[in-house]
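Appendix B. Extra example for self-study. Work through it before the problem class; the solution is given directly after the inputs so you can check yourself.
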Amino acid sequence: MVQSVIATDHLTKSFGAFTAVNAITFSVQTGEIFGFLGANGAGKTTALKMLTGLITPTSGTATVAGFDVWKQPEQVKRRIGYMSQKFSLYEDLTVRENIRLYGGIYGLKMSEIKAKTTDLLQKLELESEANKLVGALPLGWKQKLAFSVALLHEPKIVFLDEPTSGVDPLARRQFWELIYEAAASGVTLMVTTHYMDEAEYCDRVSIMVDGKIEALDTPRALKVTFQAENMDEVFRKLARNQL
Amino acid sequence: MFEIQVHNLSKSYGPVHAVQDITFDVQAGEVFGLIGPDGAGKTTLFRMLTSLVLPDTGSATVASLDVVRDYKQLRQIIGYMPGRFSLYQDLSVEENLGFFANVFGVRIRENYDLIRDIYVQLEPFKDRRAGALSGGMKQKLALCCALIHRPRVLFLDEPGTGVDPVSRKEFWDMLRRLREAGITILVSTPNMDEAELCDRIGLMQQGQIMAIDTPKGITAGFRHPLFAVRSDEMYRLIQDLRGLEGAASCHAFGEYAHLSLHTSAATPDRQVGAIHEFLVSMNHRNIEVRPVVATVEDCFIELIAQHT
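Solution. Structure tokens for the complete assembly:
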């Protein structure tokens, strides 16, 4: 049987009279690359905050890595990784210091942090940059490093919130190869993006409109359902219907 | 006639060469796109051309006004929409527009024709605080405020950032209408797919312009035979294709991988056949191979690879 690593049932969040996330029900399988799409204000960020245990739902349930986001948020946090362009690494710490800081936060032993630092620097070919401030690295490198740091404590799930926005097209592709590699090793990835070509790289994609999931399927099936040439067209057709 | 002229312009911040010796011209009535990732130097270049930052070396004119010497006149005739939302969040939509009209000493009525198409979409929210608008609506308001004094030259720094694909498309439709009104537009974006919407583009990376041409001219310069390929296992496909004899590079492009080959005497048909055969031997299934024309993004990737 395929295992759900994320499962929600009518998950809802309201702020006063405004329902940001309106009874969404979906599940994500282990090792899946799940694209979580939607226009600005559709409710993606609020949904991600509930799944990562940062805010509590108004109603409905969600389990992440087998734990209830409402009752066991601390258990959830220990088993997930998170990376976004807005918040990732400390710019005024060195590469090595950032790895050590995050390793420490996630409760890794000093010996583990040491071993992982060596592996990670070698894999990213950052050995010569290890003692440089993160702020001095090109954006593409920062993103790759941030992703690797989010994987440091071997989480079951990593949430990637627009991980590649603003990155050059070559670095963007190199980043996706890291995502594929993580998925192949059994990590589940939930990714938001504004690049519709990246939606094509996902195993399955959900599209949120006005707090609801309006479509959820493989990119190929979505294109058939919406009679669209590509994901950009699928997205535009769905968002357009709501105006 | 050149509306913007830039000669050997450079700007460094300590050890960081934000803009390195850039030279280019923009013709009157042109939509010129600066395409490049974050950190390429686009914003620094915009700030120099709008007289907000002084160049270290080199010179530039906008509508024949020197960006250093004539900065006071320059500021009267340009519109500038910075990348970060820069209106007053606590003022309403209507108050923001009124404020910018006042600063430039114009009445909204005089130039309303220029912004009408955009402003009608904002009208239902005219009493709402700017800070409470959606991303797409903020962007439209910022554009109205940048246009209210009927500038000759419009500078738009990453107008598409933080805006969803639907709003982005509408925004480009608006730009084309502004060009018809005779306004010269310099626009920057990290999105390669927006390049095709410009009359000419400059591809920027690490403070330099790697290439300048029309989008068609840029893509015509791609030197390798290029193929779109797919199978049921895309990640493995890309890895495998890189090992194909004669492969120059292989990258993911949406639902396909783009494979470029070193030039050879073989016809495209024979090359398609050879790629297909290779993939069958690697046990790929549902294989599709066809020759394709390079996009601006293919060219950008190739240029980065050459420069590093």
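Self-check: Chain A touches chain B at residues 38-41, 138-140, 165-171, 173, 176-177, 180, 184, 194-197, 200-201, 219-220, 230-232, 235-236, 239-240 (CB under 8 Å). If your reasoning did not lead you there, revisit section 3.
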